[in-house]
Write a structure and sequence with these properties.
The chain is α+β, with helices and mostly antiparallel strands. It contains 18 helices and twelve strands. It is about 50% helix and about 10% strand. The structure holds protoporphyrin IX containing FE. Keywords: Heme, Iron, Metal-binding, Monooxygenase, Oxidoreductase.
Length: about 500
């Protein structure tokens, strides 16, 4: 046929066909040298990307079995994810600088912060630097507040008659979330704002809205600003929390103007650390402080609530751990009272929680990073700039080579005599990545561990727990890389006879 006889529609069809043949079958992909779990071709990888939504665990286990000590890739709906296996390559990631692989850019891309909170939060994540310098060192001075808030929160969330052996049945996740969000609010914004129920619920709501913003990844870039307003309520939540936070910020700024930076009665909380550590004091606006607080809240409350839900399920289904932990806690409190130091020494409780995170944890991968400059692993594999990179945490956490009887929950597997050289929950290793690893390792982990240990000790001392219907442990849900404890699972609480605290 003479090409000049083709209509414009035929030309368009031909051009598009050639384009897709080139794109899907001929064009070399910069990750072609990395083996794939699932389909590699552009066309069929779509089906593997769909499978990733519910079969992340099976996919990472397959990648671990086929390519131990190497990297493999899996297709996601919007891109590819490179996953490394084995301690050597995890160590490469751990050592790498932010100039090459960035957690901040990974998380802000995953949840598209640019279109919800604005680009400033990832361009200048000063709140992370402040957390790193202030949070861990302030857990001890703030411990009395944390403990007080925890006891109040349990009393409210687990409503039991003051006497008697009546059981109450409660949703494990929602109960954990209520308690954790109250403790976090006390630590982050202090009294009286932390007692404002509207504020607390908005913080919980904000974290759910941030999760929803993942959907923006599937929109063309020009539609994302609009999508950020249509598909999430983040802008509205920021406005509402700002209204509640404004008087607090204004009062603190006023006190500072009147009495200087260390004014009498100044609260020791996240808001004060942000005000003090702001890199540009003249930009300490309610909006900026509110956004940073919401981001820290996001990093903090669902992670900790999920960890506690897992631990509650483990406790309720493995009652044989209760008595030894009770004895440990009671002996410590009797000798030293209930202090931060006492909580640190609860080594059985620490081991139980570390095991709970090893066994279930937050995700099947950890150390999520965006590759900013071509990054070469020690086995010579080059991960090109622009790629998404993670470490296969689920598989190593369940590998017999790293954990004897890895498929059995062994609550005291990490306990060492007197706690000496005990692998502690907050300390990452190349085969324990619940809090990530390397420079971006979770800056909230020392607070999270103190909070979780205190909460678990409080439950063990004050309640008997069991699962509703005495059933099996509620099953996790796997969504993309996330491991989500059953949100509908219910736990029964009864006041323990002769409660100690
Ligand atoms: C059990 C509870 C928690 C778990 C399992 C957890 C887990 C993690 C993980 C896996 C990371 C990524 C680290 C990496 O990739 O190397 C991370 C980062 C982070 N976490 Fe946590 N976290 C928890 C609690 C908290 C709490 C309570 C806070 C705040 C008080 C917090 C604040 C953060 C922040 C701000 C980052 C980002 C660090 C950065 O950008 O460099 N987390 N967390």
């Amino acid at each position: 046929m003479d090409p000049s006889e083709l209509s414009w529609k035929q030309w368009l069809f031909l051009t598009l066909t050639l384009y897709f043949i080139y794109k899907w079958f001929l064009k070399r992909h910069p990750l072609d040298h990395i083996p794939t779990i699932g389909y590699s071709s552009h066309l069929f990888s779509f089906f593997s990307a769909i499978r990733w939504i519910w079969a992340g665990k099976e996919i990472v286990l397959e990648g671990y079995a086929k390519y131990p000590d190497r990297a493999f890739k899996v297709p996601l709906l919007e891109s590819w994810l490179v996953i490394v296996n084995g301690p050597k390559l995890v160590d490469d990631m751990r050592r790498a600088s932010e100039e090459y692989i960035s957690f901040t850019r990974s998380i802000s891309g995953f949840f598209q912060f640019d279109y919800t909170f604005g680009p400033q939060v990832s361009r200048d994540p000063y709140h992370i630097h402040i957390l790193r310098s202030q949070l861990a060192r302030n857990v001890e001075p703030c411990f009395e507040d944390i403990k007080e808030e925890m006891v109040l929160a349990f009393d409210k969330a687990v409503p039991l008659p003051s006497q008697g052996e009546e059981w109450v049945t409660l949703p494990a996740y929602d109960t954990s979330l209520e308690i954790v969000s109250k403790i976090s609010a006390r630590f982050f914004v202090g009294l009286p704002l932390c007692e404002n129920e509207e504020y607390r619920l908005l913080c919980v709501h904000a974290t759910m809205e941030i999760v929803k913003s993942r959907i923006l990844n599937f929109l063309p870039v020009f539609l994302r600003p609009l999508g950020g307003r249509i598909f999430t309520d983040i802008h509205g939540t920021v406005e509402r929390t700002k209204r509640l936070m404004a008087p607090l910020v204004e009062e603190r700024l006023k006190q500072e103007r009147l009495h200087g930076r260390d004014w009498p009665g100044k609260p020791n909380d996240l808001l004060s650390w942000l005000l003090d550590g702001h890199p540009r004091p003249e930009e300490r606006t309610v909006h900026d402080l509110d956004v940073r607080t919401l981001l820290v809240t996001f990093a903090s409350i669902h992670t900790t609530s999920q960890a506690f839900t897992h631990a509650l399920y483990d406790l309720a289904t493995k009652p044989e751990y209760i008595q030894p932990m009770r004895e440990e806690i009671e002996a410590l409190i009797e000798n030293q009272g209930w202090t931060k130091n006492t909580v640190t020494k609860m080594y059985k409780v620490d081991s139980f929680l570390r095991e709970s995170q090893r066994f279930d944890g937050m995700a099947v991968v950890s150390l999520g990073r965006k590759v900013l400059k071509d990054f070469t692993l020690s086995d010579g594999t080059c991960i090109p700039a622009g790629s998404s990179l993670s470490a296969n945490s689920w598989s190593v956490h369940h590998d017999e080579a790293h954990y004897a009887n890895a498929h059995v929950f062994d609550g005291f597997r990490f306990v060492r005599e007197g706690g000496l050289k005990q692998p502690l929950m907050a300390i990452p290793t190349l085969d324990y990545m619940a809090f990530g690893h390397g420079r971006p390792t979770c800056p909230g982990r020392f607070f999270a561990v103190t909070e979780l240990k205190s909460m678990l000790a409080h439950v063990i001392l004050n309640y008997d727990v069991r699962l509703e219907n005495g059933g099996p442990r509620p099953a996790n849900m796997f969504i993309e890389s996330s491991v989500v404890p059953d949100r509908n699972g219910r736990v029964m609480f009864r006041r323990r006879k002769a409660a100690a605290a």
